[in-house]
Design brief:
The complex is a heterodimer.
Chain A lengths: L1 H33 L3 H4 L16 H9 L2 H33 L1 H16 L2 H14 L6 H7 L1 H17 L4 H8 L4 H30 L2 H6 L8 H7 L2 E2 L2 E2 L1 H30 L7
Antiparallel strand pairs in A: 1-2
Helix pairs in contact in A: 1-13, 3-13, 4-5, 4-7, 4-8, 4-10, 5-8, 8-10, 8-13, 9-10, 10-13
Chain B lengths: L1 H8 L11 H31 L16 H8 L1 H33 L5 H13 L2 H11 L6 H8 L27 H30 L2 H10 L3 H29 L3 H6 L12 H11 L3 H9 L2 H20 L1
Classes of the chains: A mainly alpha, B mainly alpha.
Chain lengths: ~280, ~325
């Protein structure tokens, strides 16, 4: 019995270790490369997993001083923040409406919203690029600000709708009995209770905008208007010359903070993802 | 619900339009609905119209409708390759993800030290913007400096640099050229897609596993059946809806993806051997400016998407009833 348990535990650790290596190794490799000296890196015989020469911060200096990377970072943050604001303004009232007021229609419209989320950017990017041109937004981060809510609003409405449904309507009715108007009850009672849900959609809207690649690639070709996902993959490469260490630095700087935030909000995100097939 | 509300409160005050829940519901829904109709609905219709027209960036007027575009797209060997790659890419990667996610989720639901950190590492590929994660792989699979090749060389699977007369077991060369040969390039693209999708499926399966009542597990273990029978006859049936959800999301995100292919191979090595529908549509529609052919290309995703959406609807409705 003891032996069996021991065997099981070891097997478990072995499985988990294998998967951790598979998942995290590229990031370890990126981190190592970030501080590598070029003479060390570009010698095929050198052990790639360690520093054969002392590490250097030269690659970071190059990234921040001689490329548009700072502009990519700023653009990414601007796009993220503005899209978050637009998404909240549109999705919070819609989610409340679908959760509470629209009755059985709410259910159907809610599922409809989710279906809209399933329409992928790759299906729409060609007409979208026409729309962006017609609106005069080509080559500007404004194009992303206007278009990104097309995928954040449906998903966040769906997510928040589920969250608001879990808040008992008694608390609002009590506020109505206490003499608040319907809007007053929403503002004073519903809004504070829904705040964790709203925080979740803020986090996910921001990360979804950081992940987006196809629209950004199709709408913007001007270097100083690019965001992280397109800038790092297209601008840090001059002709055939890859500034590998700086590219890896650019990636790891973004990857780690986003992953930490993701980890913190994961459970709520999954609840929205699983269509209620799992009751959380 | 509305009627009970009013009967509770009608003596307290007279309802104005602001308290009419129907009007309020419509008013609150309108901004989001208008936005979605204008910027998702209209482009969606445009996508279909474009596919049946001859619009290009140079001549964007929607003035002539034709099925010639479809004919041209269908007869293009590059498109045919992209379409079959799309199925290969999706089926192989999602089958692998489904198997691996079940193994990993089962291992992760047990209690062990450092679980938070392990979860963090496992989630990294999904949390990182995919273009960034893929560029990490681009460097891992480099034709000369790949650390995988270095490891293979030192294991004797590949030839050492500058050593004469040695034969590599895997390949008689100093490097694998992961992205340089069609078969290996497709393998690499699929591998990166597995790497990126595995965390999401694992987390969804974990959510399913933790929702299975421990009583059921205990009862089964008392009966003393083996793990395979326990998994097949108890876990799998209970897990089926959640596995379905994980699989459907995986199919949608994979069948419609172009990021991994675009960043890793740009569809190469020539001639377009790893191209998928979305990346081919990008090259046609955006880079060459042939909007109609690009739109017609992505339209071939629609049947699969519709199928997935229908199954999702059924799942959503079933969980609504229960």
């Amino acid at each position: 019995m003891l032996l069996r348990r021991f065997g099981k535990g070891t097997l478990n650790y072995a499985i988990i270790s294998l998967f951790v290596v598979f998942s995290a190794f590229p990031f370890y490799w990126m981190l190592i490369a970030t501080f590598k000296n070029s003479t060390d890196l570009y010698k095929p015989a050198n052990n790639p997993f360690i520093y054969n020469l002392p590490p250097t911060t030269e690659n970071l200096r190059l990234l921040f001083n001689q490329t548009n990377y700072p502009a990519f970072l700023v653009n990414t943050i601007i796009v993220g923040v503005v899209v978050v604001i637009i998404t909240i303004i549109l999705a919070v009232p819609a989610a409340y409406s679908l959760a509470r007021l629209a009755g059985s229609w709410g259910e159907r419209l809610g599922v409809g919203m989710f279906m809209v989320y399933l329409i992928p950017p790759t299906l729409l990017f060609i007409p979208m690029s026409r729309v962006v041109t017609l609106l005069g937004l080509r080559d500007s981060i404004l194009s992303q600000i206007v278009i990104y809510p097309t995928f954040t609003v449906p998903f966040c409405t769906w997510l928040l709708m589920g969250f608001m449904k879990s808040i008992p309507s008694d608390v609002e009715e009590q506020a109505l009995v206490d003499g608040y108007s319907r809007l007053g009850a929403i503002w004073r009672v519903m809004f504070p209770l829904a705040l964790p849900g709203i925080l979740t959609i803020i986090v996910f809207t921001f990360t979804l905008t950081m992940h987006e690649f196809i629209y950004a690639l199709a709408f913007v070709t001007a270097s100083d208007q690019k965001v992280i996902s397109t800038g790092v993959t297209t601008e840090l490469i001059r002709g055939d010359v890859f500034f590998w260490q700086s590219i890896m630095a650019a990636g790891i700087i973004v990857a780690v903070p986003v992953a930490i935030i993701y980890n913190l909000f994961l459970d709520r995100f999954i609840a929205g993802f699983t269509l209620g097939a799992v009751k959380g | 619900m509305d009627t009970t509300l009013i009967s509770h409160t009608e003596e307290a005050y007279r309802p104005s339009w602001r308290d009419n829940s129907r009007i309020l519901a419509v008013l609150m829904l309108i901004p989001a609905a208008v936005y979605v109709i204008l910027l998702v609905g209209v482009p969606f219709v445009m996508a279909i119209l474009f596919a049946f027209s001859d619009v290009t960036v140079g001549d964007p007027a929607l003035d002539r409708f034709t099925t010639d575009t479809f004919q041209r797209v269908l007869n293009d060997p590059n498109f045919q390759r992209a379409l079959s790659n799309n199925f290969l890419f999706t089926i192989v990667s999602q089958a692998a993800v489904l198997v691996l996610a079940n193994i990993l989720a089962a291992a992760l639901t047990r209690n062990f030290r450092g679980k938070w950190l392990v979860r963090f590492f496992i989630l990294l590929p999904w949390a990182t913007p995919i273009a960034i994660g893929t560029i990490g792989w681009l460097w891992m699979l480099d034709s000369v400096y790949s650390p995988i090749d270095w490891t293979f060389r030192n294991l004797g699977l590949l030839k050492q640099v500058g050593v004469m007369g040695q034969v590599g077991i895997l390949k008689n060369s100093t490097n694998m050229y992961w992205l340089g040969e069609p078969g290996l390039a497709m393998f690499s693209v699929i591998l990166v897609q597995i790497w990126r999708m595995l965390p999401m499926s694992t987390v969804i399966v974990m959510a399913g596993l933790t929702s299975i009542s421990p009583d059921i597990r205990d009862a089964v273990q008392v009966d003393g059946v083996g793990w395979w029978r326990e998994w097949r006859e108890v876990t799998l049936p209970l897990l089926r809806p959640i596995l379905m959800v994980a699989l459907l999301f995986g199919i949608i995100f994979t069948f419609t993806d172009m990021t991994v292919v675009y960043v890793l191979t740009r569809g190469g090595p020539p001639p377009n051997t790893t191209q998928v529908l979305a990346s081919w549509a990008y090259i046609k529609g955006i880079q060459s400016g042939n909007l109609s052919e690009g739109a017609a290309t992505v339209l071939f995703m629609l049947p699969v998407l519709l199928g997935v959406a229908l199954v999702m609807l059924r799942i959503a409705r079933r969980s609504e009833v229960s």
